[in-house]
Amino acid sequence: MNDEPLVYMYSVGKRKPYDYDYANRQSNTQNPCPFCNPQTLTDIYETDGDKIWLHNKYPTLKDTMQTILIESSDHQGDISTYTREENRELMKFGLKCFQKMYNSGDYKSVLWYKNFGPKSDGSLQHPHMQIVGLDKMDGYKNIQENNFTGFEVGKSGDVEMNLSKRPVQGYQEVNIVTWHNQNLDTWADLIQKSTQYVRSVLSHGVDSYNLFFYPIKNGEGTCCKVIPRFYAPPYFVGYKLSQVDDDETLEWEAARLKGFITSGISLT
User: How far apart are CA 244 and CA 198, in angstroms?
Assistant: First the structure.
């Protein structure tokens, strides 16, 4: 197995803009947000309303093609707070952009993810995602099919939601799978409800999360994994050992999540 790490180019990273003071949890007005001034943006690939897909001006990773997907013109926006229709349009636009890079054949692998909050490793508060093409590395080499299965929360058409029994990091990871990239409105709704659950209910509300999107069945379908972010456990940091709650707790959490979800979405 090739265990070579991604190489971070510090000379580029030190020039990146930071518009959020995570220590004090407030915007840093001395560093204005570049995404709030779309007229200054360059190397734009595609737009849809106020959503913009563009080249990352500060590509910090060696042997990659880094792109940014600006979600909204609302600096304070988030998937958990968008209207249902705004979020549906965002997820469809994001999937379209991801598939364009994934199907191009130009990269060894393509990664699509989102940072939110002070523990998610983000540098800009303005809502955005990243789509990154890796020239030489399989970004999914450590991901297994069983990372996408677990205690079922519910199903609707082509879409399934579960709480992972084999998390990538732990402890609770929500999987929302569209097996054939169909029923995308439901898929988007469940992603939104999951972020709302993480921010308001799980562990009395979590201030940070990541979304990771995985192509499954050679890109025929897509799994969105919602990972609440706490400080990483030492077993994962030091040994790459993920942790998961016991089955009784996971079953209870899955039932609680289903009760939260089905207040606005019908699942079987």
Answer: 16
Q: 216, 201, 188, 204: which is closest to 256 by C-alpha?
A: 201
Q: Model confidence over 175-195: pLDDT tens digits?
A: 999 999 999 999 999 999 999
Judging by beta carbons within 10 Å of its beta carbon (0-12, 13-18, 19+), is residue 166 exposed, middle or buried?
Answer: middle
E strands present in 140-208: 150-156, 159-164, 174-178
Residue in this structure with the two tokens 């706490």, named with its chain if needed: 230
Global confidence as pTM: 0.92
90 Cβ contact partners less than 8 Å away, ≥ 6 residues apart: 51, 71, 72, 79, 82, 188
- For the chain, the maximum distance between any two Cα atoms, rounded to a whole number of angstroms, is 52
Q: Which residue carries 């990871």 as its tokens? A: 173
CA atoms of 65 and 56, how far apart (whole Å): 8
Q: What is the pLDDT of residues 203-249, one digit of tens each?
A: 888 889 999 999 999 899 999 999 998 888 888 889 889 999 999 99
CA 188, CA 55: separation in Å to the nearest integer? Answer: 25
Among 4-18, 111-125, 207-221, which stretch is predicted with the lowest mean pLDDT?
A: 4-18
